[in-house]
Amino acid sequence: MSFDEMAGQEAARQVRESYRALAQWLEESPPGLLEARSRQAEFFFRRLGITFSLYGEANASERLIPFDIIPRILSAREWLLLEAGLVQRVSALNLFLSDIYGPQECIRAGIIPADIVLTNPYFRPEMSGRPPPQNIWVHIAGVDLVRTGEDAFYVLEDNARTPSGVSYMLENREMMMRLFPDLFSEYPVRPVDTYTDMLLQTLKDSAPSGAKREPCVVVLTPGPYNSAYYEHSFLADKLGVELVEGSDLYVDDAQVFMRTTEGPCKVDVIYRRVDDDFLDPLTFNPDSALGVPGLMLAYQAGHVTLANAVGTGVADDKAVYTYMPEIIRFFTGEEPILHNVPTWRCREPEALKEVLSRLDELVVKEVGGSGGYGMLVGPAATRAEIEAFRRKLMADPAAFIAQPTLQLSTAPTLCGSGLAGRHVDLRPFVLTGPNGVQVTPGGLTRVALKEGSLVVNSSQGGGTKDTWVLDT
């Protein structure tokens, strides 16, 4: 039985302290109020144009991302644990990336096999021996967490390339404050709207040193046809900076400039939402029309900051993920505060044998996969799907990891027949600048809206909730 965020373990099934005011409010609310407020939220979100593409369906058009109006609540004590673990983990990720593109001491020490790093499709040899400005690799991280018990939080994966979803975190909070001001009066909820101020300051602080003026920051988007374009434009607006496409920028004398009606403007920091392969057609994909020719020349010369740095995709890799406990110990000298989900590395013969014998019980993922694609959820798969995946796994074992099917915690969710428990995860957002690591108090709670489903990804039909972190 899953741990219930509101009611706790099955043995107790009494409302947990952090949810008591919410439970009472729900009990006293008149019939139909929640459904009416949910319709209001949908109306407002539709007017704002908050959409996402559900790829893989016959009609993959832009549609509204589902929003559930029942908040997910974390106590101050729970958040202190999560915050400490996130700071530790992202600090270790930055140290790891600095090392693999530098002295590679972790490889020489046998902490992680060389081939997992050096043959990784996201490893960029162009960055070897070329630290980014301020030596910060992951300015913005989104770490996916799941919960299985009272204090049992696990890291499901690290997102260190271009983590998405922060706009939904901010819009969800604004919507909840608009619809339920009376409920906020019952709770000391920590704000999340300081995120954009924190982000802007982090980006400015990470500008190349030596600038004699206020750093110029831009958000680089692939364009309006990208599924996350709403978030790109939202962030640029909230940061008060320009939203640009590759054609808006050019490189001259190893410096990046933005075309404006008043003439060229030197750019110091690019918050890029474009993948490495498309950033610079002179260095990576020559057919890319999304990037800026010569951008890597300016970057390698230290004249512009890219957030996140080129080559951070290695830290997203699920095979690297399995070594994170050892990486944390090696670089910080500390025991991990947040643990990984137990994981089999299918590249190891004994692990592969175990996984093949239990495919109907396990979740098997591609090491470079994301968004819930390219994975097998054994308990929910048909025999034909399991056998097809078995053949893929045997053909290329190193491309997969496997994990037990965790009973993710459930949170009360408004469904067609009223409130019901649905499985959730949590993506907090972590910012790293020269002055340290900061975690926004909350994050994006994603919820699997189908009964029994463990797939929370928005790209596959999951929804989102507001996440409340209590101040006391």
UniProtKB/TrEMBL annotation:
Top-level taxon of the source organism: Bacteria
Species of the source: Glycocaulis alkaliphilus
Gene3D superfamilies, A to Z: 3.30.1490.270, 3.40.50.11290
Source taxonomy: Bacteria, Pseudomonadati, Pseudomonadota, Alphaproteobacteria, Maricaulales
Name of the protein in its database record: Uncharacterized protein
